[in-house]
Specification:
CATH class of one domain in chain A: Mainly Alpha
Order of helices and strands of chain B: HH
Low-confidence stretches of chain A: 129-134
Structural class of chain B: mainly alpha
Mean pLDDT of chain A: 80
Largest interface: A-B, 54 and 44 residues
Distance between the termini of chain A: 61 Å
CATH topology of one domain in chain A: Four Helix Bundle (Hemerythrin (Met), subunit A)
Shape of chain A: extended
Order of helices and strands of chain A: HHHHHHHHH
Number of strands of chain A: 0
Radius of gyration of chain A: 23 Å
Number of strands of chain B: 0
Oligomer: heterodimer
Number of domains of chain B: 1
Distance between the termini of chain B: 24 Å
Largest sheet of chain B: none
Chain lengths: 200, 80
């Protein structure tokens, strides 16, 4: 069993385990935690299948945005043991240890990179334009440029230059989604505005 | 999704369903000749799921303000 299939087995098992635990768990905060496990494992599966931009978007939007929103809603609407959140000294020590570990990871990865070589690679990658087939996937990612050009209406992966046939991209859905997000923002702010509480 | 009576639990179930659809889209776009199409559909699904979660949580907070609970079985009146 090589590394890819090992990681695939691990993350697929964690995604399925998290999904089942979301369904069978009874407390809302634990459901949110298992949902983080499941969605994060799915993002790892996306990274394994060469969809790196999609995995990063999954981590940023789902795990970073939607789940924080869900946890806020759980806290705002819950009753009982989650109304008051107190931290015990052991949790403070644990949080400090985690923070120091993260700081150590960031500092060690920062000092371990050859910045001059990376700068030269990035300059070389930015200097060439157009040829999608020659860019270095190690410094730019596998799908970033293709997805960006598709959202602008171009399809470099379909080879429009060779056949002369123009393949349409996703410019119109992109614009529709952007206007939709604006409408959702205004609508959610209108729905959740502060009002007088009714006595029912 | 159908086993929960809490509105936010139902929302988490919807997120799981959309996530499973995303996994299928990305896997089929990787192992067939679809190219990048499946990943872009997955991006749109992620964005629309985030928008749906924002609106649904606003509705849940509004419902909690009116009923002091988010049990969806209590939502049995229109214009309540």
């Amino acid at each position: 069993m090589n590394g890819d299939s090992l990681f695939f087995t691990l993350f697929a098992f964690m995604a399925c385990l998290g999904a089942v635990a979301v369904v069978v768990s009874q407390r809302m905060v634990r459901m949110a935690f298992w949902l983080i496990i499941s969605l994060g494992s799915t993002a790892a599966l996306f990274f394994l299948i060469d969809a790196d931009f999609l995995g990063a978007a999954q981590l940023l939007i789902y795990v970073g945005g939607t789940l924080v929103l869900l946890v806020f809603a759980v806290m705002l609407t819950s009753s009982g043991p989650y109304l008051n959140i107190e931290t015990s000294p052991g949790e403070i020590v644990m949080a400090a240890m985690l923070g120091l570990l993260f700081l150590f990871m960031v500092v060690s990865s920062q000092t371990g990179i050859d910045w001059n070589g990376t700068n030269q690679q990035m300059a070389a990658a930015n200097g060439m334009t157009g040829e999608i087939s020659t860019f270095d996937s190690g410094s730019e990612g596998n799908t970033l440029r293709t997805i960006g050009m598709s959202l602008l209406g171009l399809r470099p992966d379909r080879g429009a230059a060779e056949t002369g046939q123009l393949h349409t991209g996703y410019l119109l859905p992109f614009e529709i989604v952007s206007v939709h997000l604006l409408v959702v923002l205004i609508g959610a702010a209108y729905l959740a505005r502060a009002k007088r509480r009714r006595d029912t | 999704m159908a086993t929960k009576r809490n509105a936010i639990g139902i929302l988490m179930g919807v997120e799981l369903v959309l996530n499973g659809a995303n996994v299928n889209l990305v896997a089929f776009s990787h192992y067939t000749t679809l190219g990048i199409d499946g990943q872009i559909y997955s991006l749109f699904v992620i964005v629309l799921a985030a928008a749906e979660a924002a609106v649904a949580l606003a509705i849940a907070l509004n419902f909690y303000n009116n009923h002091l609970t988010i049990d969806v079985d209590r939502a049995n009146r229109l214009k309540g």
